Amino acid sequence: MHLPISQQVGNFRRITMNPMRVRTLKEAPYKKGSVILWMSRDQRVNDNWALLFAQKLANERKVPLAVVFCLVPDFLGAAMKQYGFMLKGLHEVEESLAKNNIPFFLLTGAPENEIPKFIEKNKAGALVKDFDPLRIKRQWTDGVVKKIGTLLYEVDAHNIVPCWAASPKQEYGAYTIRPKIKRVLPEFFDEFPKLKKHPVLWQGKIPKTDWFGMLKTLRIDTLPEVDWIKPGEKQALRILKTFLDKKLPSYALKRNDPAADGQSNLSPYLHFGQIAAQRVALEVENASVDKASRDAFLEELIVRRELSDNFCFYNTQYDKFEGFPEWARKTLNAHRKDRRVYSYTLKQFEYAKTHDELWNAAQMEMVKRGKMHGYMRMYWAKKILEWTESPEKAMEIAIYLNDRYELDGRDPNGYAGIAWSIGGVHDRAWDERPILGKIRYMSYNGCKSKFDVKRYIQAITSL
Ligand code: FAD
Ligand code: FO1
Q: Do 308 and 328 reside in the same domain of the chain?
């Protein structure tokens, strides 16, 4: 059934889709009717394995193809800051799809109701969806599976090595998943075929999307959008080009310096699926840059990122104390009653009112720019553990703030990053100390010895 989309083996990368990217979530007898792609995590037209697979299926069946996106009224604490970024990207998706004879439908409401209604109303023959390990997404999917009578396929369009192909279990750390990913990477690291103008036209009415009207369906906070980073697929490619030309050569040296602009800034685009990690990796692989920089970047983009998906996929308690490894729970339990020299409320953290100017600057970077530097994220989360009454409370506060203010929040990378910092996930035990027990410690003085703390604080203050 799932043959490669096309194959071009030679001196070049294969232009093909490995069938292991696809899982059947619901079997059903063949039914003639359109193929529908339920787009959610991978919000782009180019380099999208889910869309390419849906088109291949529609072509085999000689039927129309449509894309639906279901806009939910609130999503894990996201505000206008993030919804605005997403909706502008989706508007671009609608326009690019139209050029390919593929209509885009923006539904509003709960996906477990709206997707089955759409399938029923349009007498669709098959549904394709993109993969996401988050709990809420799985609940939506389970709801849809129960209500539809059509075939449902799931495609991992986000990871280079599909989550289920990378490993069948929760991995201990980068050191255990790295060799597994490396072993199978050549089987998945293919060039993307081009999406084609769809040959069979949609028969029904295609309503004009009311991009302003649907804002009324949202129940979200009005935190304003940021203007230093622009959304959308085209812009993502521009940011990638700037990164390749200007920052990749010094990535290994500068990525951990919050006072330098050494990171790619691709995370918001990767989070909303406005660019494929696989496109980024293909371009980095081909860049004429020394191997150390390329390897350092690909370690983050492939190994660390896919490790986060692995964690959320196989550990349903990914955002809870109960999701920490046993050694970490034990050591944190042993230190529950330790005296906290500083103890802050959520509001004090939120308004950056701690005694530590470096921590406050990191918090303000997140609030104002919507993107905290990667190195500061570790320090920021670890201090929340040190300055709250319990690890459970620390998790709650860190996740709340991360999901509310980061453009790239509400993502497996966020839950894994926070669980690493507070709960030793993917890390090892370190020397024992108060409150943190054997969880790795970070200090202001440690930061001072690594980068120009004053320069970082000044840069944030002048934002
Ligand atoms: P670059 O350094 O340019 O890296 C490129 C890409 O590699 C990133 O976009 C990301 O996809 C991946 N990557 C880099 N570092 C990591 C990492 N440590 N773990 C997993 N993938 C990584 N990342 C998010 O995308 N969303 C979050 O909400 C998030 N929250 C975090 C919270 C904490 C407490 C910690 C410690 C880390 C968190 N990270 C999160 C991971 C990482 O800090 C960010 O991905 C990175 O800073 C994003 O900036 P960039 O794209 O410019 O990174
Ligand atoms: N996915 C959807 O299918 N519908 C939404 O309305 C939606 C809103 C949303 C808002 C902020 C945000 O950060 C993500 C949002 N997503 C939505 C999901 C997103 O695309 C990602 O799939 C997950 O957050 C991470 O895997």
A: no
